[in-house]
Amino acid sequence: MKYVLIVSSCLFLIACRDASYRTYYDQEETILKTEGEILDGVQVGNWKYYDSTGKVDIEGEFDQGMRTGQWKYNQGEQQYVIDWVKYESSQGLVFNYPSHLALIDSISSGSRLCFSHGEDDLLQIEIFGNKGKDSILSVFRNLIYTSYKIIWSDCESIEDGISQYYYLRLYIEGNGFSGFMYTFISEWNGKAVIVEYLYPNKDLAFYNSIFSGVIDHLKIDNHTLVDPIRSVTVVPLDNWKCENKESE
Fold it and tell me: Are the beta carbons of 117 and 101 closer than 8 angstroms?
């Protein structure tokens, strides 16, 4: 009996550490949405994401919970590829970014990093001492409203039981720019992280995939801020809602 219990315990531990992971579109679990492997609580190996008709939308490899190498994205008859690499800053920030973006500016302390690809898009990641997420949101909101005309916005507060973070999706005009600004704000261990991604009003699926790839598995001090395999609660931020809002 003791031998059986020991074997059962070992099998249970192995199953928890290394298991197939699947999600479905329907409660009957007949229409596959996502499939891949989990090892020690993180995504590893090949992962596939399907649309509701069973066609593979996205496919690529994870290495210890981080995207790696070439990922394929299918949009109708069009397919594009993003080559993902990992970046680790001296401030304890770890994230994925696409290799076509070049690091164009950084503060020596590693608290601000800017990546760009010509005039097409700009990715900026900042880390600083946290003064409270509400004040960060207020400062950011005032900056945007005084610098741009906001045509459209859709913003949310998200919690997953471990982390809380904010998504701000804006369409803006001003300062020689017209297009989207996607922003992520969160904090951990006394540090605040803000990610801003500006891109033009074209190839939206491509740019949206880049933003999602940077945000997913973003780590600060070895803590994953956004983990796609954790369930979340989403609350709209109504005070950010605006249509044709003129800058003040």
Answer: yes
CA-nearest of 104, 88, 248, 83 to 174 is 248
What sign does the dihedral 57-117-104-152 (CA atoms) show? negative
Amino acid at residue number 18: D
Q: What pLDDT does 248 receive?
A: 39
Which residues fall within 8 angstroms of residue 22, CB to CB, at 6 or more apart?
Answer: 29, 32, 33, 34, 35
Which tokens belong to 105? 């500016």
Fold for the domain defined by 86-245 = Protein Transport Mog1p; Chain A (3.40.1000)
Per-residue pLDDT of 133-166, as tens digits, reads 567 777 777 778 888 888 988 889 899 888 888 9
Residue with tokens 């992280």: 193
Domain boundaries, the chain: 1-64, 86-245
Secondary structure class of 30 (helix, strand, coil): coil
Please give the distance of CA 52 from its chain centroid, rounded to a whole number.
Answer: 22
Burial label for 86, CB within 10 Å (0-12, 13-18, 19+), is middle
As given in the structure block, the two tokens for residue 20 are 């197939």
Report the C-alpha gap between 123 and 103 in whole angstroms. 9
Query: What CA–CA distance (Å, rounded) separates 247 from 32?
Result: 44
